[in-house]
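G., the chain you wanted modeled:
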Amino acid sequence: MPPLTIYGNSGSGNCLKVKWVAQHLGLPFVWEEVDVPAGGTRTPAMLALNPAGRVPFVVLPGGEVLSESNAIIAYLAEGTALIPQAALARARMLQWMFWEQYSHEPYIAVRRYQLHYLGRDPADLDPKLKERGEDALRLMEASLGRAPYLSGDALSLADIALVAYTRMAHESGFDLAPYERLRDWITRVETGLGIGPYA
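Predicted structure as tokens:
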């Protein structure tokens, strides 16, 4: 069977989570690096594959194209231990994955892009990005007081989806020092995935 092809950018947490799931599950894949700042997602060839003009997206072995990071990892992990079998635990996993795209990524990842890539002054940014990012980190810290992973006692897609930008939060101007459980969780997830710590 031909390998999966992942189109992504190595600086993007949304892209990395797809790569990590494929690696963790031992799926053969080819990584195609896309230069997003240079307009790499907007070329005619790329738009022909993914009209949404974003990465990540994958070309499956049968030629089908699938986009949106959390949809991709859910497809890749179908039938594996990364998706809990129990209905409530599975729903908790999905709850966190939906929350990640609505209440975490829009603040922590967006602030990172503004500071780390565009070099903007923190004083010029919308203060709600920092406020709501801190809200997200506090919620995760509190939730990790109940179980070692977000949806229970085992690593799931929820953890992979949320660790991607959480471990980069210092580049967004967030200090993780007050969040002991969150820092321990990041280390657990990195160890479970076999990836090194983010410098």
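Helices lie at 13-24, 44-49, 69-76, 87-117, 127-143, 157-166, 180-193.

Shout if anything looks off.
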